[in-house]
Amino acid sequence: MSVVIERPGRPASLQEQDPELAAVLDAERQRRATQIDLLAGENFTSTAVRDILAGPFADKYAEGYPGRRHHTGCAHADAAERLAVDRAKALFGAEHANVQPYSGTSAVLAAYAALLRPGDTVLAMSLAHGGHLTHGSGANFSGRWFNFTGYGVRERDGMIDLDQVRDLARAVRPKAIMAGAISYPRAIDWAAFRAIADEVGAYLIADAAQTIGLVAGGVLASPVPHADVVCGVTHKLLGGPRGGLLLCTAELAGRVDRGVFPFTQGGPAVNQVAAKALVLGLAATPAFGTYTRQTVANAKVLAEALEAEGLRPLTGGTDTHLVTADARAVRLAEGVGLTGRAVEQRCEAVGLLLGKCAVPFDDVPPSAASGVRLGTACVTTQGMRGKEMTELATLVGRAIRVPDDARGEASGQRKAVAREVLALARRFPVDDEPAAPS
Ligand SMILES: *Cc1c(COP(=O)(O)O)cnc(C)c1O
């Protein structure tokens, strides 16, 4: 039995303390319950994850590493971080793990800090072909501080052009090769990247943030035996808290740890670290393997069904939770072809969330883009299966054929699709409790 002692004058609820913000949170709760989330990098956390995030570690400072903290009172923070590290090492068969990075971006920054000096040459997937911001964007620290050369995919089949990677590696002699992408739906041949890195004496960094959960579930081959440092996150397929993860060899452990703290971070978010421990443990269970296989099976069904709607899957399909598709061939009453931006907007107007993305060799600027990217992590967490993937593709196909007009027939068509999206969302509730009425 617990006794709640109210501090004098303490507001009883967020509603009383800050009605303006309470209304924003209610609106977001409502949005979650009524839209369908096909955004590639998102997933839904469990109540247990959110309880840990809101729990006693939320306020703890624990700068440093277990047993070597700059703050007192860290015995339990040490225990939580040791659990997370040990589980990460066991799950991925890695010699060393660091669970402190605040995000995927911080994990990549720390990996660069561990292996590179400003001005070093790095060979990475170009952003236009699927690379992440941290793989050399001029607007990001990566492009500012390092000298990036970009490789890409073959125009013929959309697959990573390993011959080009080898040729560029021989030409620019990079200090590191970065393998990994944000918008590439296929398995990456880590061993082939390793062979190229060895040939030119480069480090191999794997940015597996997008797919590390599929590696954990046994669906995709692991980069761990091949890469010097592997970067990951826990908030995508692993279904955990927002945050990054680094795996490396014992030899690089000290450099990677120092690359995180004190080089690029101060005190870790101990509540995130504890929640990482939970999902890294759960990811070793057969149930998680089943989840990851279903997620990929769903993506395969979705890719095929989208093709029937005129959204042509890049690379012809997927090996992952991702589907990338070219919107230029969609047949509309008003003609042929949509931009990715138009697909994204027309879908959002009916409650379907997906993202525009550039297609390789795109002929329109990235702000419009010719493609879209979808992921099946959220809908699989909700319990959807192949049947619902076909249903979703049909809804996407109908949504993108509704012209942009605000009134008249278009408005009626849009409302009809939106009603079906809502009905599907209601059949697979995200949260245990019903959303608060707005
Ligand atoms: C998601 C992702 C990141 C960045 O993660 P953040 O937590 O958003 O910083 C980096 N690289 C790849 C390949 C990703 O998929």
Q: How many alpha or pi helices? A: 16
Q: Mean of the pLDDT scores?
A: 95
Helix content: 40-55%
The quaternary state of the protein chains shown equals single chain
Low-confidence stretches: 434-438
What is the gyration radius calculated from CA atoms? 23 Å
Quick structural gist:
The chain has 438 residues and is an alpha/beta fold.
Secondary structure layout plus pairing:
Blueprint (H helix, E strand, L loop, with lengths): L13 H4 L1 H16 L1 E2 L9 H7 L10 E2 L2 E2 L5 H18 L3 E3 L5 H12 L5 E5 L15 H5 L1 E5 L10 H11 L3 E4 L10 H11 L2 E5 L4 H5 L12 E5 L10 E5 L4 H12 L5 H13 L3 H23 L3 E2 L8 E5 L4 E2 L2 E2 L3 H9 L3 E2 L1 E3 L13 E5 L1 H5 L4 H15 L7 H20 L11
Parallel strand pairs: 1-15, 5-6, 5-7, 7-8, 8-9
Antiparallel strand pairs: 2-3, 4-10, 9-10, 11-12, 12-17, 13-14, 16-17
Helix pairs in contact: 3-11, 4-11, 5-10, 7-8, 12-15, 15-16
The site of pyridoxal-5'-phosphate (PLP) has 14 residues, from α5.
